[in-house]
Design a protein that fits this description.
Length: about 300
């Protein structure tokens, strides 16, 4: 809900009772911090009863307090998740021209890792790793925008571990070709950050229709598709201006790969052997120069003495 729309609704009410005026004044002076209030706290701070708050919101066109709060929270998310808006708000607090930018970013990263560890349910993590390793069907991985890079990373390493791993890109013109064979035996790992990609949302909904187990990695514990998810893993992504940090997400993904490996040892060694063979076949890595360090030494004169390079 945008502030302008909120004010317009109030203006359309016409005359307000004294109690309603108190509620209106509270919302005006505290918006958008009202996203963190309850109907009880609003009534206490406005000095009115909860019934008055409820009636006021219904006059504005809301079915009740929950619907009103949902719209307020959406507005807060939209305001804070734009990188340039976040930069404008925080730059004076964090960047002063004399700051140790690397130390500041490391501080954010450490806090993200610590909170991710604290809020991660160990059993959910274990279940997610086992499900991705042992599902009878295929493992699909999806992410959009910055999440696509994380999905690409996880996909490349998961291919070392098991068969039938597929990366879904965010190209809507071709993605249907990759989804046509999805069945209930498959598993989806979706990397899904606010402001929540519409492409990833549609893919998750498709897997939901196919009754597939869905594993979600997100920086929010409540998302637009949380009701479709079987296992949700949290990775905090708070960052300094200009962009959020994905360091905790990378740590979770790396840990999932490690946790998947014990379930796949029967095929693990053979797959690594094949990958090594393919590396040789395609000359994947650069070779070290054949010349020795002696040949790279300074040129010498006929008498064995080094030439004076300064001349």
């Amino acid at each position: 809900m945008r502030r302008k729309n909120f004010l317009q609704r109030i203006r359309e009410l016409g005359n307000l009772t004294p109690s309603e005026s108190k509620v209106e004044a509270f919302f005006e002076s505290n918006y958008p911090l009202t996203a963190f209030e309850t109907i009880t706290s609003v009534s206490k701070k406005a000095g009115v009863g909860t019934a008055t708050v409820g009636r006021f919101l219904k006059r504005l066109g809301y079915k009740g307090f929950p619907e009103f709060m949902q719209e307020v929270r959406k507005d807060v998310v939209n305001r804070l998740e734009s990188p340039i808006d976040r930069y404008s708000v925080r730059k004076n607090q964090v960047l002063d021209g004399k700051s140790d930018y690397f130390a500041q970013h490391m501080n954010y990263a450490l806090k993200n890792i610590e909170e991710t560890y604290t809020r991660m349910r160990p059993q959910d993590f274990k279940d997610a790793a086992k499900l991705m390793a042992t599902c009878e069907g295929s493992l699909y991985i999806m992410g959009a925008s910055t999440s696509q890079s994380l999905a690409q990373f996880f996909y490349l390493l998961a291919k070392y571990l098991r068969k039938r791993v597929y990366l879904l890109d965010a190209n809507l013109s071709t993605i249907k070709h990759h989804l046509v064979d999805v069945s209930s035996k498959d598993v989806l790992l979706a990397i899904y950050y606010s402001r929540f990609s519409s492409q990833t949302t549609k893919v998750i909904q498709w897997f939901g229709k196919k009754n597939c187990p869905i594993i979600l990695l997100s920086d929010k514990e409540i998302t637009p598709i949380s009701d479709l998810v079987h296992i949700q893993l949290y990775a905090r992504s708070e960052g300094p201006p200009l962009f959020n940090s994905r360091i905790a997400s990378m740590l979770v993904l790396e840990s999932l790969l490690v946790a998947m490996a014990p379930h796949l040892e029967s095929q693990l060694y053979k797959r690594f052997e094949i990958f090594e063979e393919l590396r040789e076949e395609f000359s994947t890595f650069a070779r070290w120069p054949q010349s020795s360090s002696k040949n790279n030494s300074h040129p010498k004169t006929e008498g064995g003495h080094r030439k004076d390079q300064s001349r």
